[in-house]
Structure formats: structure tokens, C-alpha cells
Amino acid sequence: MKKMLFAAAIASCLAAVGADLKPFPRLSAPRAVTKGPYDHFMANYFAINAWSPDNRYLLVLETAIQDKLPDGTPCMLGLTDLEDGNRFIPIMPIRTWNFQEAAMAHWLPGEKDTFVVNDMRDGKFVAVVRNWKTGQERIIPYPVSAVSEDGTWAIGINYARLFITRPDYGYAGEGQDPKKGVVFPEDDGLFRIDLKTGEVKLIVSCAAVKEMVPPVKSKEGMSYLCHTVISKDMKRIYFLSRSVEESYEGVKKFKGVRWHTTAFTCHADGSNIRRCFPDGWGSSHFNWKPALTERDGRTMIVTCKWQNKVYTHVEFTVDEEEKTWRAVGGKEMHFDGHCIYSPDGLFVSGDGYFDKKGFRHWKMVRLADDAVIPIGDFWTPPVYRDIYCRCDLHPRWRKDGRQLAFNSVHEGSRQVYLIDVDPPLAP
Questions:
Q1: To which H or E segment does residue 12 belong?
Q2: Distance between CA atoms of 368 and 347, rounded to whole angstroms?
């Protein structure tokens, strides 16, 4: 049963609007590149590249789990061969994964046929750098949360602490010390990881932002750093400081939980920590702009509570002396979406959570004039609506702007889909 409304015709009609503006591209109907009997989804979080450097393979996870928290159950990391009938190539079992950030796999551009992915080895959470063709691998003694554009360094976080506060994003097990009983630990936070040598160094502690975030009044509360992303010019890191007031052992599916979220940026070495927004704006999703100019390297699209009133898509530039904010797309973009720039930096798209009828809406805005078109509406079967095993679309662009990829359940199971883009939104 296929329940999806697609907007390729609308995009085509609007493509010619505005002679002085870059037209919206024509978008093909989405096609599945994975299939049952197992479910599949891309092996990393939204906005992160899933294509191999030659664009032949997609990094994906395969699992039989549909409707429960993975909770340490292994899945299979593999590749979809786009040039051989979308054949699935199994590579290695993975124990550190979830339905939101998957296993945070990243292709390493400086090493052919090689990626880094999180896993559990000898009872510890680690990152594994693996050449999938030769099977050769090396172990990095800390799991990765974000990887630099050149693939030489990464940022790591405490996934055991994250599992206590957000089970749908963390990893089950005792692979890391979650630092229980310490609200703002001084020895936990953001770690910079050298992917060549394996050296790991704490660069921003949870305690370092204590005076810049709302106070945690309960001794049973817990603060943690998460949701990291490195700018395309590799000069800055965006991250969230989040905390819960209630006993962290009682955080279950967010019912009655009081959350505090503050967005920050810092330099690549952890210095110059700066808040992004005023109190109350929070932040949920984010993407650094392609660094086509020096200013672009300091620019982001973020979903947050604009002026402490409505969740929407906000573009801002991180400057040394000031920050600028601009809500994009008007009321059409008033939702909390997984926001991503096109590779040319001229368009932003965002996909929201499912509405009362079970549909997820995906839209694209042209930044030059805030014009908005729908990309598609995708139905979510009830089995995939639980907060811990939901299937967000989590879209991302191919680097040459010729395709979009996303996860979806609109045809009845969790699978990976591609959309062709013409003309490509290349940088």
C-alpha cells in the first residue's frame, strides 16, 4: 500500500518563476533502493553524506526490529550497490546504533573504500575505521558524533550518558562511564578525536557551560552535551547543552519531563564558546552552510523557537562581535524540521514530524526570495509512530547536487529512497 503525495509536478511548474532567481529544480518521484524482508535505513544522521566517494554505494543498516528500542540488539551494517541492482552487501554487525542517528557512519575521503563507524568492542564503545573491501580496520578508543570534512578528526560524546536521558539517541550497555550522580561533570563533554593517531582530548566540558545555561535545580538532574556538527570549513563546532530536572532514571518517552536546551558554537579546539540564541529559543535541528565564501563558513540553518514564539527555520551567521538571525520561508516553514542546505547553498529543505493524519511534510525554500514548494507528504504506518522507533525522513544531499536520499515507511516498511534532481544544485 503506497500512501504518499509527491510534488514533482508542482516543482516543475514553479521552476520558471522569477527570471533573476535560480529556478527550483525538477524532482523525480522517489524510488526505493532497499527492500524487504528486512528494514533498512541510512547508517548516519540526517544531513550526513551516505554516498561513497564514487557515488556507487550507500552506507545503510539492516534490521528486523520495527517497533521497539534497539537496546543493544545487533544489526548489520552494509552497502547498497546502486550500480548492481541495488544489491545489499553485508559488511559487519553493529551493536551501537539507534533509529535516529543510526551508527554515525562517515566515509573518509582521504582513504579509499574506508569509513568510520561506531561499535562495541571488548565491552567498550569505540569507533572503527574499516576498509570494506579488504576488511582491514583500526580501532579508535572513543565513539564519534561528528567527522570533519577532510576525514582527519572527529568530535565524540558520551553515548552512555545520552542513553539515560535520550534512549532513542544513545547506546545501551556499559561501554562508557555515564557519570551518574554528577549534574555538570568537569571530565565529560565534547572530545576531539584524531582519526589517524587515535588521540582523544576533552575540549569542552559540561561544566564549562554551566553558567551559560538555565540552572538545574534538582540534584537528581543531569546535563549533557550532544548533537554536534562541524562547519564545512572545519573552523567551528555547533553543539547543544541539554539537561533534565527529573531523576534521570525516570526519563521515559519524555512525558512530564522538563527539558532545557541551549545551542552553542565554539572554535575547532574548543575555545571561544558562544551561545547562539537568547533564552527560550532552544534548538532542535541544524546544518552548516557549504563554505563557498568566508561568510558562508560561519552561517547555519537551525530550527528553533523563533523570538520565543514559534518553531521555525532560522538562518544565522556566527560573528565575533554579533549574531544575525533571519526566519526563512514565512509561515510555510513554521515547523520543527530536519533542515539541510542544498550543495549550492541557495535552497533549504525541511521535513517535519507526522501530523494527526500520520503524514510527514517535506518542503523546500529558496533563500533569495523565501518562496516555498512542497517536496512530498509521506504517510507513517502506526507501527512506526512510537517515539523510540519512529522513522524520520532524515534527508541528505549527494555532494554533486544530483540526488536526495531519505528514509521512509510510506510503502509499509522502513527503506531508503532516492530522488533525482534536475538540474543539479551543484556548488
A1: helix 8-14
A2: 8
Cell output for 60: 545503510
> Can you give the pLDDT at residue 13?
43
pLDDT tens digit sequence for 231-253 = 999 999 999 999 988 766 655 66
pLDDT < 70 regions, the chain: 1-19, 247-256, 320-321
Q: What distance in Å separates the CA atoms of residue 349 and residue 313, rounded to the nearest whole number?
A: 9
Type of residue numbered 378: F
- Identify which of 295, 336, 254 has the alpha carbon closest to the alpha carbon of residue 46: 336
Among positive and negative, which fits the CA dihedral 187, 189, 192, 193?
positive
Report the 10 Å Cβ neighbour count for 7.
Answer: 18
Residue 275 three-state SS? strand
Alpha-carbon distance 192 to 270, whole Å?
A: 9
**pLDDT tens sequence across 352-398:** 999 999 999 999 999 999 999 999 999 999 999 998 999 999 999 99
Round to whole Å and give the CA distance between 215 and 260. Answer: 9
Cα gap 173→263, rounded to integer Å: 28
DSSP for 196-210, please give it.
TT--EEEEEETGGGG
Query: Which of 401, 420, 342, 348 lies closest to 26 in space, CA to CA?
Result: 420
The model's pLDDT over 390-414, given as tens digits with 9 standing for 90+, comes to 999 999 999 999 999 999 999 999 9
What is the DSSP code string of 128-170? EEEETTT--EEEESS--SEE-TTSSEEEE--HHHHHHH-TTTS
**pTM for this model (two decimals):** 0.94
Residues 6+ apart with CB under 8 A from 122: none
Q: What is the pLDDT of residue 8?
A: 46
SS3 content of the chain, % helix, strand, coil (to 5): 10, 40, 50
The cell numbers describing 207, all together, are 561544566
Query: What letter does residue 381 receive in the DSSP assignment?
Result: -
Amino acid in position 54: D
- The pLDDT assigned to 103 comes to 98
Which three cell numbers, joined as nine digits, stand for 222? 543531569
**Cell numbers placing 67:** 517497533
Question: Rg of the chain's alpha carbons, rounded to an integer?
Answer: 20
- The answer to whether 212 and 273 have CB atoms below 8 angstroms apart is yes
